[in-house]
Design a protein that fits this description.
Number of domains: 2
Strand content: 5-15%
Oligomer: single chain
CATH architecture of the largest domain: 2-Layer Sandwich
Shape: elongated
Organism: Nonomuraea muscovyensis
Number of helices: 8
InterPro entries: DD-CPase-like (IPR052179), VanY-like_core_dom (IPR003709), Zn_M74/Hedgehog-like (IPR009045)
Structural class: alpha+beta
GO molecular function: peptidase activity
CATH class of the largest domain: Alpha Beta
Number of strands: 8
Distance between the termini: 47 Å
Largest sheet: 4 strands, antiparallel
Protein name: Biopolymer transport protein ExbB/TolQ
């Protein structure tokens, strides 16, 4: 019995260790980040398509109103075109001798009055025929405009409903991915602020928003904390760095050592004056964008095992050692993030 209990304990410990290893898999975290970014891109594209469609609908509605106005005008002209015929008929039959003027005309004994009356009849017939043709044309145009207006309205409503449903589906998918990413970060010791169901400061979808702030003036709420206490980066850079740090942990048994990450404007000014020649002009540093870190724990020593490992592996996670940092000034500890070079599948 004791042996069985010990075996169960060992089994549970092994399971827990395997679960922890899975939680710390840098590839998994990177995959979640990329899924979140892809979902964000799809959502953005669908939202733009919806906005474009709504703009098109607004234009179509404007066109629809114009067509309906045209229809009303056509119907008004239709009513007006009937009036001359009715008036002319009434006028002719009110004229004396009109009804008795046909026989003299046929016998050749018609006088000027009879001829005038007959001319009026001829004019009436001609105008009536023209009026009938105009009425038919207007009726046909009215039917066409009405059918077209109905088709435009139905098409607009259907298209907007379909796009709205797609945007809603993509938003739910995005929220689900971000939630999974948040849970993974929490398991790695990241203290993530939340608003509703989605991560707030560590939501990679907010990276573009953080990029809208001036260098060194990104609000704390827009920055994602690292495992290394007191340091933070822009969300996409932070998640990529955490993935990189977990891969580094697998190699060296410890996370990457960080001395500096995001620097606000005041911190940039302080470093600039304390270390002349080794810091960018305040307001121009990538630290102020949340896209750079200064490392320690061996990485700061050029050609050390840690530095060489970083050179070989960091680009898989979007991090690299810039060319200038090899010589002018020489800063082996300085590393930067560029999402375009992230090659980890």
């Amino acid at each position: 019995m004791p042996g069985r209990v010990e075996a169960d304990v060992r089994q549970r410990a092994a399971t827990a260790e395997a679960a922890e290893a899975a939680d710390r898999d840098p590839a998994k975290l990177t995959q979640l980040r990329k899924q979140a970014e892809k979902s964000a891109q799809e959502l953005e594209e669908a939202t733009k398509a919806l906005e474009k469609r709504r703009a098109g609908i607004a234009a179509a509605e404007k066109e629809l109103k114009a067509k309906l106005l045209t229809l009303q005008q056509a119907e008004r002209r239709l009513a007006e075109s009937r009036q001359p015929v009715a008036q002319m008929v009434e006028l002719v039959y009110q004229q004396p001798g009109m009804t008795s003027g046909v026989a003299p005309f046929l016998s050749g004994d018609s006088d000027a009055g009879t001829l005038r009356s007959m001319a009026n009849v001829s004019q009436m017939v001609t105008e009536r025929q023209a009026s009938v043709e105009q009425v038919a044309a207007l009726a046909k145009e009215s039917q066409r405009v009405a059918a077209e207006a109905q088709e435009i309205r139905a098409s607009n409503l259907l298209a907007e409903a379909q796009l709205s449903a797609e945007v809603d589906m993509l938003r739910k998918r995005s929220d689900k991915v971000v939630k999974s990413l948040t849970q993974a970060l929490v398991k790695l010791g990241i203290k993530v602020d939340k608003v509703g169901k989605a991560a707030f400061s560590c939501n990679p979808l907010r990276a573009a928003t953080a990029g809208n702030y001036p260098n060194g003036l990104i609000p704390t709420a827009m920055l994602c904390p690292l495992q290394q206490k007191g340091h933070s980066l822009r969300a996409d850079a932070a998640i990529a760095f955490i993935s990189l740090s977990e891969a580094y942990r697998r190699q060296f048994g410890r996370p990457i050592c960080v001395t500096d990450a995001y620097r606000n404007l005041a911190e940039q000014q302080s470093v600039y004056y304390r270390r002349p020649g080794f810091a960018a002009v305040p307001g121009r540093s990538n630290h102020g964008l949340g896209l750079a870190v200064d490392l320690c724990g061996g990485v700061e020593r050029f050609r050390s095992a840690e530095f060489v490992w970083m050179e070989r592996n960091s680009k898989k996670f979007g991090w690299f050692h810039p060319d200038w940092a090899y010589s002018s000034p020489f800063e082996p500890w300085h590393w930067e993030y560029d999402p375009k070079i992230d090659t980890l599948p």
